[in-house]
Amino acid sequence: MYFISDFATNNSFCRELIFDAKVAEILSCIEPETKASVAMTHCWHDVTPGENLPKEFTAVIEIPMGSSVKYELDKKTGLLKVDRVLYSAVYYPANYGFIPQTYAEDDDPLDVLVMCQEPVAPLTLVEARVIGLMTMVDAGKKDHKILAVAKYDPEYNDCEQFDELPAHRLAMVRRFFQDYKLLEGKSVEVDEFQPVSSAIPIIENALEAYSTLRRRGFIERR
User: Fold this and answer.
1) pLDDT in tens, 117-131
2) Residues 77 and 185 reside in one and the same domain
């Protein structure tokens, strides 16, 4: 402990020492894992995808249901950035995000649509369960989107397969992705929904691809 009387000739230096000592005292009471979390978290690289993979996982939400703003992951910072406001008079029909620590065929984290009663704020973590797969061809690349439900939403938590959802809800989701780039002069091919059995290998491959690339240093921690 430092006392002002010991450093009466240098009040500024004294105050710095007292502050440093107090900070050290506070930090000594913090668990090591908590100290590590004080550093900024990168939502792609630092969020654990879950313990019950591949059927259940943690999803990072980028775009809330009902939004016409296309937020997307900024890979350098781990924050979200505004990519664009949608050109068409449409809005996202489900909460949209990605599964952390995955690497998909379009060189991004694996996309996921999380069905839920309410819009979920961007950068929120949602415990989700896979119920199907929707595959698009966008700019010549396959763009898989996992269809999931929020585990703790009572309206959806009993759903196990995509075809248990109302047919109109599924039609809205598919139609959105067919139309949302039309006024940009771009077309997107959207396949029919596929069952959980088709989605599981996509999730497993994306997890393995991320792990392989991370080990080789192709994915840098920014």
Assistant:
1) 999 999 999 999 999
2) yes
Q: Are 84 and 181 in contact (CB under 8 A)?
A: no
Residue 136 lies in a domain: yes
CA distance 121 to 112: 15
- 70 lies in the same domain as 120: yes
Cα–Cα distances in angstroms (integers) from residue 130 to residues 39, 51, 56, 214, in the given order: 31, 14, 6, 25
Q: Which residues are the active-site residues?
A: 92
Helix, strand, coil % (nearest 5) of the chain?
Answer: 30, 25, 45
Of the candidates 206, 11, 220, 22, the residue with the CA atom closest to the CA atom of residue 99: 206
Q: Are strands 69-73 and 125-138 parallel, antiparallel or unpaired?
A: unpaired
**Distance (Å) of CA 125 to CA 50, 85, 113, 137, 209:** 11, 23, 13, 27, 22
pLDDT at 214 over 80: yes
Q: Is there a single domain that holds both residue 78 and residue 184?
A: yes
Strand partners, 112: 97, 146
